[in-house]
Amino acid sequence: MKNRLSVMLLLLISLNVFGQKKEEHNFFTWKNFVDGFGKEIVLAEDVFDRMAKDGLKENSLTKMDFTFVSDKEENLIELGKFIKTHYPYSVQEIKQNDKHWEINGETNVFPMTADNLMYWVLDMYKRGFEFEAVFEAYGGQIDSETSTFPIVDSTKADYYFEKGMNCYDQGDLSGSIFNWSLAIENNPKDPNAYYSRAIAKEELYAWKSALIDYDKAIEIAPKFADALINRGGLKYENGDYEGAIADYETVLRLERVGDRQQQQAYFNIGNTYLNLKDKNKACENWYKALNNGAEYANERIKEYCK
């Protein structure tokens, strides 16, 4: 299987790397982030429904304006720099509003669907948290008479896939999802598009939807080792340890599996057995990972296999 995306290495050394920042935040805390996550999804659905009632056409290319708020100007200065560097968006000057500061901006056009709006909102919500800024408001201008739409044609599938790659490489997670969705619409049999979109969704904590995409990629290409490893990692993160082990063991049974995938599979099996309180099997698999070249397994062996 030719993978056109750098593999997300789910070595499962620790969980919630993103959440490690939570103690550093006072204005927009990790608890605020977690408590508001589901609310943002519901609000995005409501906003899309209102836009549809106002004449929005499905998949029409639409710009969104947005506002972030923080208690420190420097937070928004850094957020503004990040957005301008990683997204094709425009950002305005920061303004002070009572005790808070706010920054406004506007996106490029993207195909507006309920799913796309939700992923864009989650992307902005996550980016705001990373700079201790609240994603305060957003909206879009609708002109149903002049609506334009992305091209749907099987010959454009590779174009949208590569455009998604470029967005992902830039750090524009929602942009990558928009384009990989268009690649799938133009060629629903490409496992790489589902696999790639799953990775971006996973980074936005849309785990159920990411799992569906991994499932689809593996359905199309049952020997897709990287998809199996990543799906196993996602199952692990959500407490399905038996399901995770099954995916890793499937990788090890493949006739042609690369050294990297084999190392990852053994290492991740070891980590999973550790969570199942079976230290013997954990050590057994970490040693197999090490013997196959995974030097990073040494740390676990030194800690648990004395």
Helix content: 55-70%
Written as H for each helix and E for each strand, in order along the chain, the element string is HEEHEEEEHEHHHHHHHHH
**Structural class by secondary-structure content:** alpha+beta
Q: Termini separation (Å)?
A: 39 Å
Shape: globular
How many strand elements?
7
Strand coverage percent: 5-15%
Cα-based radius of gyration, to the nearest Å: 21 Å
**Main sheet: strands, sense, barrel:** 5 strands, antiparallel
> Spans of 5+ residues with little confidence (pLDDT < 50)?
1-23
Estimate the mean pLDDT confidence: 92
Q: How many helices? A: 12
In words, what does this structure look like?
This protein is of the alpha+beta class and 306 residues long. It contains twelve helices and seven strands. The strands form two sheets. Strands 2, 3, 4, 5 and 7 form a five-stranded antiparallel sheet that branches. Strands 1-6 form a two-stranded antiparallel sheet. Strand 4 (95-97) and strand 5 form a beta hairpin. Helix 1 runs antiparallel to helix 3 and helix 9 (241-253) runs antiparallel to helix 10. The longest helix is centred in the N-terminal third of the chain and has 24 residues, at 30-53. The chain is globular, with a radius of gyration of 21 Å. The two termini are 39 Å apart. Residues 1-23 have low confidence and may be disordered.
